[in-house]
Specification:
Two copies of one chain form a homodimer. The first copy, chain A, is α/β, with parallel strands linked by helices. Chain A folds into three domains: 6-67, Orthogonal Bundle (Arc Repressor Mutant, subunit A); 72-176 and 366-374, 2-Layer Sandwich (Nucleotidyltransferase, domain 5), CATH 3.30.420.40; 196-357, 2-Layer Sandwich (Nucleotidyltransferase, domain 5). Chain A has 14 helices and 15 strands. The first copy, chain A, has helices at 6-13, 21-28, 32-45, 109-126, 166-173, 183-195, 253-257, 259-268, 276-284, 288-312, 328-341, 344-347, 361-374, 377-384; strands spanning 19-20, 48-53, 63-67, 73-79, 83-90, 95-102, 134-141, 145-146, 151-152, 178-182, 202-207, 211-217, 220-222, 316-320, 351-354. In chain A, the strands form four sheets. In chain A, strands 6-5-4-7-10 form a five-stranded mixed β-sheet, sandwiched between helices. Chain A has a five-stranded mixed β-sheet with strand order 13-12-11-14-15, with helices on both faces. In chain A, strands 1-3-2 form a three-stranded antiparallel β-sheet. In chain A, α6 crosses α13. Chain A is globular and about 80 Å long. Chain A starts with 5 loop residues before the first helix and ends with a helix. The interface between A and B is large, with 61 and 61 residues.
């Protein structure tokens, strides 16, 4: 990457602050003529826009320029097992329009992705942006994904998706960069960008039918060697029951504390809980059995999170997902065990909090993943035709 | 950081390949005159050296330059509970001289660090390098360290060291950058640099009196929010015994599988095992009880590592430390449980191997940590006096 390329210069402008040509020359040490030429290139892409004039120091006041996140849009998609959220955002991660829809991931990739494209097109029409304004598309899937290729790898609850070329299919509708990742990874990205941008070590835990985590270490999302990092659901609960798990092992966290496991425990007490939403409703209505069951699930999750705390030493753990909507009872169970079981050094500044993105963590993260890619020095240089 | 600074240019030369001024101008897009001036600055530091001439394309053949790792040396220190290893290396991590010594970390920081300084000075004399050649000093300590300040934080087995300003004390003898980290973190760095440079996700596990891990994710050492990441020793063993641990909890990995725990189990069978070295000797001599005990310890460690695998998805786990010298019996116990308990996706390409640095992982990592710092753009710019 040439240090004097338009892409490199643009990185300085990502913070949105207006700057003059002289500011940029002083910061970079590049020649004024080089800066002026790069500014022209960036203005032509629309990603840089004039923002007025700086105070004059005598003579004509110099023009200022800033990153214009509204120049292009992103289609952000958060696919769950039984529903999806699709949003159109700008490059700064602001949601311009969004829609949630019921769909079954088990229907297979073609019908699901075609439906996503349909909804995305409707949202673009709604905000009055042509499809040519789409800079990229970000997709979260409820299973492991090989991030480099965008293909799911052996996803346990996504029949027909194993190895499917998601970017190729979506690329037929939107010929733009298409980035795919595990849903919990993009939730971690979204919560981090929107709520905790200054925290370097954050764990986002999704508690729903399955249980998984997205890991931000040293400010960066950690995917692991096969994109399988953060799979909390199949960790053996310390000292836990030996409940059989769909993965073939015994005593996995998901088998003792996932939404269906809590529902099964309540069924033995004569309570029918057909869904995670029904479980949350029961707790909100003050049902004691449901409250006790969720608090106990929190303790089991806490036992595994205590291990995560000793291993990763995060400063924030965010709890999200459909069951997390049960609120403080779940958090109380988690905190109880984490603060008992983890080392004092690792917990002295640790916060365990509920997600604050109101179900939007996934689409916000998908948008951030795309913005990170399309605004990188390489992509900007390709755009201005000076890549080398 | 100015993209056209000497420090930025030097990063291109870190790989040691000889380059001409023209090569560098072409790669960076900088003006020939700028490149020539930066080369002069870097030559003056000695870190860049002339390496001859490239093939001529007509006229005088152009001069080539390359990073000279022998220009300066590093003092690398790996402090254990009862011994230390001190080495003098070049900036490329090649050991020029080294010494191991018996010392008790419990004697407190002043006597221990003074002894380290004494040995370092002797090694410098041995290799005939003046103290002014020392570019930096790297130190590993057997406890949690706040890396930014170089101070141990609540180390459980280092009386007198809590909050001690290690860099200040050593800086009295060597007025150079002094970087301090947890010993397992630097072992992970050393094994990664020396043996697995192309692996992005690696876990180094030290099994000795204590048990700990250094985590490399996405090519970078992960320290966590308080520098406490990788503390495997106090993770609760899944389904494990409830042995009391010195940390105040029950069933910690260290309490069931650390060197002293194995020795205690053997003592109940009438075998006296006074040290980790004695345990290793027993196993090498073919003692069945000791072999069975170490294999069982491997299984307990494997249960916790299975959790690490699901959480971090590394592609290599390196087993090191004094008990690891017991060899294949320990590894067999670990592999047995990891491959049973972790998800197939995370284990399909996973290798679990013994350390290949023959006890040198710590000093190699300390040297790498220092080289990374003193060769950074900022430090190089400070050296040539063009920092801004």
């Amino acid at each position: 990457m040439r240090p004097n390329s338009a892409g490199s210069l643009f990185q300085l402008l990502r913070d949105g602050q207006p700057r003059t040509r002289a500011d940029l020359a002083a910061t970079t040490g590049l020649a004024r003529s080089t800066v002026a030429a790069r500014i022209e290139d960036l203005l032509a892409t629309g990603l840089l826009a004039p923002t007025g004039e700086a105070a004059s120091t005598g003579g004509r006041p110099p023009a200022t320029f800033a990153f214009n996140p509204r120049a292009r849009v992103v289609v952000a998609v958060d696919l769950g097992v039984s529903h999806a959220r699709v949003a159109v955002t700008d490059l700064g991660g602001h949601v311009l329009a969004e829609d949630t829809l019921d769909l079954a991931i088990a229907d297979g990739p073609e019908p699901v992705l075609d439906r996503v494209v349909e909804v995305a097109r409707a949202l673009l029409r709604e905000v009055g942006r042509p499809e040519s304004d789409v800079a990229g598309m970000g997709v979260g899937l409820p299973g492991p994904v090989e991030h480099a290729s965008g293909r799911p790898t052996s996803p346990p609850i996504m029949p027909g998706w194993d190895g499917f070329d998601v970017p190729a299919r979506l690329g037929e509708a939107f010929p733009v960069p298409i980035l795919v990742d595990n849903d919990v990874n993009i939730m971690a990205l979204g919560e981090h960008e929107a709520v905790w941008p200054d925290v370097d070590d954050l764990l986002f835990v999704k508690i729903a039918t399955g249980i998984g985590a997205g890991i931000i270490s040293d400010g960066t999302l950690q995917r692991g060697a096969q994109g399988a990092a953060g799979d909390l659901g199949h960790i053996a609960v310390p000292g836990g029951a030996q409940a059989p798990c769909r993965c073939g092992n015994l005593g996995c966290l998901e088998a003792v504390a996932g939404g269906p496991a809590v529902a099964a425990a309540l069924r033995e007490q004569g309570l029918e809980v057909p869904s995670n939403a029904a479980l949350v409703d029961l707790i909100r209505s003050g049902n004691l059995e449901a409250t006790l069951a969720v608090r106990q699930a929190g303790r089991e999750i806490g036992a595994v999170l205590a291990t995560c705390v000793n291993l990763l030493n995060p400063s924030v753990i965010v709890i999200g997902g459909a069951v997390a909507a049960a609120g403080e009872h779940l958090l109380a169970g988690i905190r109880e065990v984490v603060y008992t079981r983890s080392l004092p050094l690792a917990t002295q500044h640790l916060r365990i909090v509920a997600s604050r993105t109101a179900g939007r963590a996934g689409v916000l993260g998908a948008a951030a993943m795309v913005a990170q890619h399309v605004l990188s020095p390489e992509q900007i240089n390709a755009l201005v035709g000076s890549a080398d």
